[in-house]
Amino acid sequence: MSDDYAFDAQVLNGLVRSASVIRVYDRGASGSRPRDVEPVLKISDRAELDELARLLEVSRSTGIYCMCLGDSAFELLDHEGTAVDVLGWHHGSTLR
């Protein structure tokens, strides 16, 4: 794995756990941006954010890197409403 794609599960999990809002989009992501303009779901309730963070928690890299845009996208926003990162959900089992 090249340094450009270095993976740190703790950093990724920390980003998801620290999000104040997570917007879910239906059509994946391209270039770190959701493909859809409007989210299908916006989560800001702390208990729901914590549950989603638990469900998205990763422990290791799969080493798999596909070229598709993903099935869905999760946009992580901080407490000021600024997008921190976008995670693409791929093949029903992996995040990018």
Return the domain count. 1
Class of secondary structure makeup? alpha+beta
Number of helices: 2
Profile the largest sheet: 5 strands, antiparallel
| Residue windows where pLDDT falls under 50 for at least 5 positions | 1-5
Taking all residues together, what is the mean pLDDT? 83
Shape: globular
Elements, N to C (H/E): HEEEEHEEE
Radius of gyration: 13 Å
Strand content: 25-35%
Strand order of the largest sheet: 4-1-5-6-7
Question: How far is the first residue's CA from the last residue's CA?
Answer: 14 Å
Please give the number of β-strands. 7
Helix content: 10-25%
Task: Explain this structure.
By secondary structure, the protein is of the alpha+beta class. It has one domain (3-95). The chain contains 2 helices and 7 strands, in the order αββββαβββ. It has helices at 9-18, 46-56; strands at 21-25, 29-30, 33-34, 41-43, 72-77, 83-90, 94-95. Strands 4-1-5-6-7 form a 5-stranded antiparallel β-sheet, with helices on one face. Strands 2-3 form a two-stranded antiparallel sheet. The two termini are 14 Å apart. The relative contact order is 0.26. The model is unreliable at 1-5 (pLDDT under 50).
